[in-house]
């Protein structure tokens, strides 16, 4: 049995169109799953229901080894915009969070210190949270989410509000944590999802659009793609490429084209010959397969 | 129960860090002792302002019990206003900032969350009131005259029930509404309506907890017996309990829809 089994989960706010609409999914133990989808797809609503903060309108959420009880016992959750009591210090807050999760005073204090060390906040442990930077707050938020060693760690857009340094810190922390616990996080930075996740779940309009193991999904949807970048001033030449027989579809940007093809080898040869014949100046030519972004765009559009 | 203590401790620490534990007791102390002190120095004050000694002598000197009762009436206007303003954000503040989520992600019930807040408010309120009232009694005894302890204790308890109701109303409206101004307005309005209706419609309002603030003063100066107050006291306490429970339901309902 998977760690988490969700069946026909639905949430309707005040009679409108459902935010989450009969969503079914599974989270397997020990896996890291990325929850992807455009804004308004229902990611946050889904996570809030899984975290026990929001009651579903209908549908079921079943945790392995947890029949009935409070799901919050076995879940750690970091909201998209965590708001802390700013007058507390990082250490006080973590101790508080641990004690709310039924730890003894000593246990919570010890665990707080251990986690502050781990998320790189040891030096700021005694400072008021009000003085923390965005990245520090996010790391403190992760620490509170794992303080009670939850079976499932859920993070809502953990990096979207951070600068590149903060983002990198949080992503490497996640990469480490996934060795110890099951993770589900939502993001719209697809590159991050590709880097750390085992599974993906793409939702659209509150329904599953695409789900599965990242590699398998990529393989199943793998289509050869050639990225071609030319020097300035060759837009017309790029545009006329659309008529070539080896081009299946083309995605044009000012000096760049992403060309979907069927036979990578043949297409590359033909394209290179065209380039040589026309004398346009080549900057970059890259042959590869579809990225998660291509997949995402396809799943979300269709 | 352990969780409840953790939540209560957090509220107490929060009120300490925001200096509520400093200024609320001070305000109650100052509001209270102002009366015996100004009454004591009244002849000098009048003289300094050019009132002749004969005219000053014609102004009746209040008794010690009246001075103490006057302090209670100060608490009933400025004291209540300050309490309501200090506590109006008790539930709504965290909900508006989103900080309540960081507590609710852990297995905590709204019942524990809200009652811990309630208890912390009452702790601070009673500490401030006790300090202020004790100070007032002390200065009244020194400067004006003795007031028997039993009368003071009875009026303290009766007025304490009224304060409990006021604080619980603040908690209730703060749980129900997101607007801090609305919370303060509705709480003060309800308290005023309770007070005024008990005064104007005395015959029909013998049961009303709105009588309690006036009765606490009467206990001091007119020697009214506290035994006749059991009905408004009981109703006041039951109403406070019901409002506290209502607050937990309102908080839960609000959070589920946010």
Count the beta strands of chain B.
0
* Multimerization state: heterodimer
Low-confidence stretches of chain A: none
The CATH architecture of the largest domain in chain A: 3-Layer(aba) Sandwich
- How many alpha or pi helices of chain A? 10
Could you tell me the radius of gyration of chain B in angstroms? 20 Å
- Look at the structure and give the mean pLDDT of chain A: 87
In short:
The complex is a heterodimer of chains A (302) and B (258). Chain A has ten helices and 13 strands.
What do you see in this structure?
The complex is a heterodimer of chains A (about 300) and B (about 260). Chain A is α/β, with parallel strands linked by helices and about 300 residues long. Chain A folds into 2 domains: about 5-220, P-loop containing nucleotide triphosphate hydrolases (Rossmann fold, 3-Layer(aba) Sandwich); about 220-300, 2-Layer Sandwich (Alpha-Beta Plaits). Chain A contains 10 helices and 13 strands. Chain A has helices at about 45-50, 90-100, 105-120, 135-145, 165-175, 190-195, 215-220, 235-240, 265-280, 290-300, and strands at about 5-10, 20-25, 30-35, 60-65, 75-80, 150-155, 180-185, 200-205, 205-215, 225-230, 250-255, 255-260, 280-290. A 6-stranded mixed beta sheet of chain A has the order 5-6-7-3-8-9, sandwiched between helices. A 4-stranded antiparallel beta sheet of chain A has the order 11-12-10-13, with helices on one face. A 3-stranded antiparallel beta sheet of chain A has the order 2-1-4, with helices on one face. In chain A, a hairpin with an 8-residue loop joins strand 1 (about 5-10) and strand 2 (about 20-25). The longest helix of chain A is centred in the C-terminal third of the chain and has 15 residues, at about 265-280. Chain A is elongated. The mean pLDDT of chain A is about 85. Chain B has about 260 residues and is mainly α. Chain B has helices at about 1-15, 20-40, 40-50, 55-60, 65-85, 90-95, 100-105, 110-145, 150-175, 180-200, 210-220, 230-255. In chain B, helix 2 (about 20-40) runs parallel beside helix 8 (about 110-145), helix 5 runs parallel beside helix 9 and helix 8 crosses helix 12 (about 230-255). At the A-B interface, strand 5, helix 2 and helix 4 of A face helix 1, helix 7 and helix 12 of B.
């Amino acid at each position: 049995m998977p760690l988490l089994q969700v069946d026909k989960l639905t949430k309707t706010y005040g009679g409108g169109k459902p935010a989450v609409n009969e969503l079914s999914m599974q989270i397997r133990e020990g896996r890291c799953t990325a929850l992807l989808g455009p804004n308004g797809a229902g990611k946050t609503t889904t996570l809030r229901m899984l975290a026990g903060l929001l009651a579903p309108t209908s549908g079921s959420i079943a945790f392995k080894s947890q029949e009935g009880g409070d799901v919050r016992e076995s879940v750690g959750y970091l909201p998209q915009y965590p708001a802390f009591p700013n007058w507390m210090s990082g250490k006080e807050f973590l101790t508080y969070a641990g004690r709310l999760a039924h730890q003894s005073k000593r246990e919570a204090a010890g665990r707080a210190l251990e986690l502050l060390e781990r998320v790189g906040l040891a030096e700021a442990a005694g400072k008021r949270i009000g003085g923390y930077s965005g990245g520090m707050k996010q790391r403190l938020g992760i620490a509170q989410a794992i303080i009670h060693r939850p079976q499932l760690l859920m993070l809502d857009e953990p990096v979207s509000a951070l600068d590149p340094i903060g983002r990198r810190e949080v992503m490497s922390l996640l990469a480490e944590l996934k060795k110890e616990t099951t993770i589900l996080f939502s993001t719209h930075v697809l590159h991050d999802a590709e880097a750390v996740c085992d599974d993906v779940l793409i939702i659209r309009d509150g329904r599953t659009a695409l789900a599965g193991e990242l590699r398998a999904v990529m393989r199943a949807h793998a289509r050869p793609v050639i990225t071609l970048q030319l020097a300035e001033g060759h837009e017309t030449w790029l545009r006329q490429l659309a008529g070539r027989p080896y081009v299946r579809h083309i995605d044009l940007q000012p000096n760049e084209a992403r060309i979907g093809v069927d036979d990578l080898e043949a297409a590359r040869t033909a394209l290179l010959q065209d380039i040589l014949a026309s004398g346009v100046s080549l900057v970059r030519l890259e042959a590869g397969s579809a990225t998660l972004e291509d997949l995402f765009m396809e799943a979300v559009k269709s | 129960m352990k969780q409840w203590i953790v939540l209560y401790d957090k509220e107490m620490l929060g009120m300490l860090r925001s200096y509520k534990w400093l200024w609320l007791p001070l305000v109650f102390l100052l509001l209270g002792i102002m009366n015996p002190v100004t009454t004591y120095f009244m002849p000098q004050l009048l003289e300094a302002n050019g009132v002749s000694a004969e005219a000053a002598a014609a102004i009746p000197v209040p008794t010690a019990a009246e001075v103490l009762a006057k302090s209670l009436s100060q608490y009933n206007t400025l004291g209540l206003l300050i309490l309501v303003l200090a506590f109006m954000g008790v539930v709504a503040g965290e909900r508006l900032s989103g900080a309540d989520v960081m507590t609710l992600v852990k297995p905590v019930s709204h019942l524990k969350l809200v009652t811990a807040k309630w208890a912390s408010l009452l702790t601070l309120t009673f500490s401030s009131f006790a300090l202020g009232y004790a100070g007032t009694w002390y200065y009244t005894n020194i400067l004006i005259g003795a007031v028997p302890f039993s009368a003071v204790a009875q009026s303290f308890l009766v007025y304490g029930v009224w304060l409990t109701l006021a604080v619980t109303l603040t908690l209730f409206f703060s749980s129900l509404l997101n607007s801090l101004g609305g919370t303060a307005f509705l709480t003060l309005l309800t308290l005023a309506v309770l007070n005024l209706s008990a005064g104007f419609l005395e015959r029909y309002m013998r049961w009303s907890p709105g009588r309690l603030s006036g009765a606490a003063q009467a206990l001091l100066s007119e020697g009214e017996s506290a035994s006749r107050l059991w009905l408004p006291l009981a109703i006041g306490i039951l109403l406070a309990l019901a409002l506290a429970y209502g607050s937990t339901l309102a908080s839960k309902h609000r959070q589920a829809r946010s």
